Amino acid sequence: MRVWLDKNPPPNVQRPAVVRRIIVCNQKGGVGKTAVTSGAGQALAEGADLLHPVRISKHFAALLNEDQPRSPLDYEDLPGPGLRVLLVDFDPQGHLTKQTGHDPLQLDGDSLTKHMAGEPKGDLRDLIVEVDAPRFGGRLHLLPACTDAFLLDVKLSGVRAREAALERALSPVEHYYDVILVDCPPSLGLSMDAAAFYGRRRPDEDPGNSGVLVVVQAEDSSADAYALLTSQIEDLRGDMGLELEYLGIVVNHYDARRGYIATSSLEAWMAIKDPRVVGVIGDLKEQKEAVRVKQPLLAYAPRCDQAVALRALAREIS
Ligand SMILES: Nc1ncnc2c1ncn2[C@@H]1O[C@H](COP(=O)(O)OP(=O)(O)O)[C@@H](O)[C@H]1O
Ligand SMILES: [Mg+2]
């Protein structure tokens, strides 16, 4: 991969001046962080040489009373952004790695954890692999997980300026990419602090370029988890003086047929306004099927409702 990176200078598309860092988080498991990280990354990497259906982001409110089938007027075909994207599997469970058809890294070999702990065994570029499908044109890459990440919080406790550990580890590969998405573990420990720090606004960076994307579900238990997460983010902002922005809230697993619980809860998320809801993604079978066959969703079912919603999300946060 290192050879590939050096031999393939970025193509001629409009690219961000500072690499965009998108930190996908929520300490609640099963809400769809991995699905959103993967899908948004895929949508950003799709090529500009092809047209891809994108859900028109008219008002999400229309979804509140919509369980009718999609009409052709609800989406339009647009060229892909064609960006170079790195997906970082920052969850020791390695779901993102496995779902994109790769194996987690060997425990005794090199890993992101070792780079963060200041004990690298090699060049981080040698760990990166490609998520392969023609529509991504070689632009979609993955830094796989390693089970040693279960020990990350312990290892980090002995590291100098530990909140900057993820930034130090990833900075040598940053200039190869336009967007780096970090799939966070379901926890609020030191690793989450390091991820949040990595998503802060840098001095030379425009507002809204990088930040935190929170994935929630349209149900009440998600609101409690959200309150915990935002209070940790407030603490980080205060304690470290970070300029940490929210890129938005993604409401996942949305199913209007579940009735009042789902619709009232979507309304509650939309009422927050800051951060705003930037995506509403339905609960659909294609996501689970793609996971089962270990294929990227946008390659497995490029025209499914979830794919068109993920493309809209990717454009909403760009
Ligand atoms: N919109 C969706 N529709 C259907 N299944 C989904 C959707 N989003 C996620 N899933 C499935 O739900 C499970 C949990 O999602 P995942 O992305 O792994 O959550 P997290 O990373 O927050 O733990 C996975 O099996 C995933 O395939
Ligand atoms: Mg996950």
Structure description:
It contains twelve helices and ten strands. α2 packs across α12. The strands form two sheets. It has an eight-stranded mixed β-sheet, sandwiched between helices. The chain is an alpha/beta fold. The model has no long low-confidence stretch (mean pLDDT 90). It binds adenosine-5'-diphosphate (ADP) and magnesium ion. The site of adenosine-5'-diphosphate has 18 residues, from α2, β9 and α10.
Spatially, the strands of the biggest sheet line up as 5-6-4-7-1-8-9-10
Bound molecule kinds, no repeats: adenosine-5'-diphosphate, magnesium ion
Distance between the termini: 26 Å
Percentage of β-strand residues = 15-25%
Shape: globular
Over the alpha carbons, how many angstroms does the gyration radius reach?
19 Å
Secondary-structure element pattern, one letter each: HEHEEEHHEEHHEHEHEHEHHH
**What is the structural class?**
alpha/beta
**Low-confidence blocks of residues:** none
Largest sheet: 8 strands, mixed
Mean pLDDT: 90
Number of strands: 10
Number of helices: 12
